[in-house]
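Hi R.,

Here's the chain you asked about this morning:
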Amino acid sequence: ALTLLLTLSACGRQTVIRTTDTLDQAEPEASAADTLIRLPELALSGLGFTFDTPRELTSQQLYLLFLAWSSPDTLYAFYNASDSSYIFPADLICQTLDRYLEGYSFDISECPLYDPERGAVITPMAGAFGGNVEVQLESKTFDGNTVVLTALLDGSVRKTYTVTFCDGGYRYQSVRQLSQPELRPNVGTLLLY
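And the predicted structure, written out as tokens:
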């Protein structure tokens, strides 16, 4: 793996960050696609992973991103066998989201599975997003500790992902859709007589 050393200047001090969460040297396009693009796109398939600032993401979108970005061990640590369900409090969800987003607005009470008595999201299942998104990485542009990736998804939707590397990880600044999917007639049409 390619290790990037980034020198960041913030709050009057310089910090050198060593990160391997970036692009794999042997297959940089595949690594960037898997790490930065495919997972959140699968998590939000149907809801859309696009925003000018993280504040635009809904609480439901943020909850799904929490599930996608959490390790199976983290999720399982919140499994309650007596209820046969997972119990996710807001502080856990925000702790995970803070690693990938800044300036978002999460209101746990807006999540459909929110239980006001417990003050948490209660769900019988967690994680494991199925499906696939074909990602063709078209370009990478670096500006200091920020990279802009342009990718074609499923051969028809072009997006740019602006990601800033910080604190040994990364945060999404924006995800913008540049083109609309092509409409394919007669695909998925069900006629009832």
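The CA atoms of residues 140 and 149 lie 5 Å apart.

Let me know if you need anything else.
M.
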